[in-house]
Write the structure tokens for this entry.
Amino acid sequence: MHALVIVVVGLLLAFVAVPVFAQDTEALRRELEQLKRQQEQYQRAIETLSERLRRLESQPPPVATPPAPPSSPLAQSPANPQSQTAPPSATDLLRPRQPFALYQQRGSGQLLFDMGVTGDFVANITQHNVQKSESGTFAGRENRFFPREVELSLFGQIDPYARADVRIEAGEEEPGAGTGVSLAEATLTLLTLPYGTQAKLGQMRNRFGWSNVIHEHDLPWVDRPDVYRVFFGEEGLAEKGAEVTWVPDFLPFYLQVLGGIFNGDNETAFGHGRLTSPLVTGRVMTFFDLTDTMALQVGASVANGETPERLRSMLVGYDIKFKYRPDGWLHPLLTLASEGIYSIRRTERGVDVNGDGIFDTFQKQTRNSFGWYGWGEVQPWRRWAFGARYDSTQYPANPGYQWAVEPYVSFYPSEFLRFRLGYKHTERTHRDLLDLNGNGGSGRIMDEWFFQATFILGAHPAHSF
Amino acid sequence: MMKRLTALVLLTAVVVLTVPGVEAARKLRVVTTIPDLKALTEAVGGDLLEADSLSRGSINAHEIEIRPSMMLKLRRADIVVENGLELDRWIDVAVQGSNNENIVRGGAGVIDVSRGIPVLEVPTVRVDRSMGDVHPLGNPHYSLDPGLAPIITQNILEGLSRAAPEHRATFERNRQAFLAQLESRMAEWTKLMEPVKGSKVVVYHPQWIYFLTRFGLIESGWVEERPGIPPSPGHLVRLVRTMKDEKIKVLIYAPWNDQKLAEKIAEEAGAKPVLLAQMVGGVKGADSYIGAIEYNIKTLSQALRQ
């Protein structure tokens, strides 16, 4: 019996002691690993110093040149000295090239391009009548939590002359429906054109204003500003075509001039969708460093196309953005911005000549409308940002306007993870023009709460200013 | 009379535009990503070039705000000098916005000075972002290690010579003169650091390993538990305990780190917070490459002796 008790007590002690011992072992292991790492670093440092000493001793004074470091065959090859000093000529560009030449410089096991996934999830809570009328900010998805945009980005250099960007996205467009996958962007950019020009072609978000080009998950707000949503649709202006930029080098300030030709597929603003009468875009953007900590970016944009009825639709926009980033800060303390769009659109209006309630003829008329927003954000701490946006937008094809105010707070646990909570109050001058559901719902006055969670997995292209 | 005057003006214009010396006299325009590289490029290029840096010494070189004014500098640049090892990958966006065909990645106008550097802290295991902002190619903060200046300047020399082969001899002379100057200081610095060799220090961000290794100091801990991620309270408690246990006298931080936090930790651990120049221009008195190293050596050796 005593022996049994001793065995049981012994086993108990062993069980209690094992974790303690394991903790000590773990601590010792970490220290050993740290020491090992440091020893390796010392070894490398000694080798470097020894090598340097050997070189110094082996060379006649006063010359003390270390051996040339390894360099890329492309840059150093004596067989092709022209490639070292001159940009590619037209003949060079026409000559067939090895498309995967860059691979040789990157080593095995590395991808030829960068790849990343972004997830953007949104929840919104609003009144029941807004849900019934499906007139909320995320139409048809009121009072739902949904993946708005899960995006796969692939980007990188194709060869020394061009780069490609491809973004494939999936998101919920209708409640309960399967998640649709679509091509968000696929562009080819020719980087080595002469005279400071660059060409981009494919399917892209147009450089109209400063925020249109930004994808949903990267916007500083939960939703795109009303002026873009009303004039271009929920996702803004994205088209298929080509654009060319020019950056002159003789001006004392930065100026980018852009011209583009696109199909004009955007159904809200254009919709003709043929190159026989294309959507033509233009933009000039400049930038001023006010001080080391303050900067201002100003731009003007234009888009001119046709509607499916072959009526002219032109939009002219301004954009302005100011940032104050105190010296040494990792983020701006204050950001202020505004964008506005003036729409000039030819429309057809039905005329009831004899008063029988039926349109007898259609008259063409020009409708001018304007929309804008102003936005401010303060980020006193790295992880927290507080901001508000005010929107005011007339309707481009119908009478009336809407305004909204949207305060929000963003929390960044890290550079790659963000949570955002926002509230949006919207008022429209008119009840819904068409009660499509016929259920009496109305979105004239809306109060919406938003929650947004966004993550970045892998590489993500950086944005300028 | 008018015709003669016009002819004279045209002739003068043609002569001015066609004389090779006029174009040859233009200085090379070099843009660097960080100020250390500007200083070293100027040391090699001398009067033959004009160098400008896209960032300042007091800011975090990992997270630079890409301004279009950078794109204007790059638009006019003949050469771009970059640190590499993914410290300054942000330059790709600025280069793309500059519309300058000479400096796109893979072009002849790009000098990556990390080639040939014996890189420290290269991950030997699979890395992901749960470890923080780990650099998969190794620690990129090598530029203020004076022992690596020969390799860096050799890379710069090769790059400048590609753009202006006729000046290679001058570049080589400038480089040798600079290295000789650095060599003479190196002896003084080594002597100054000799008494504190083997001392343990704690750093805010793991950006000093090349410098510390060069002068025989031991990095015993980090304020950032994982690079680039603000530390948790638990980690700070453990760090203070370690500093006390191991009698660590110095906590090194850079201008962009949280100064108050560094001071608080040092105070609790009975250590001294030491602000060093992470790059040229990082602190007052570190206005040149040699000046920045000298500042760091003197400040650190003084703090460790106390």
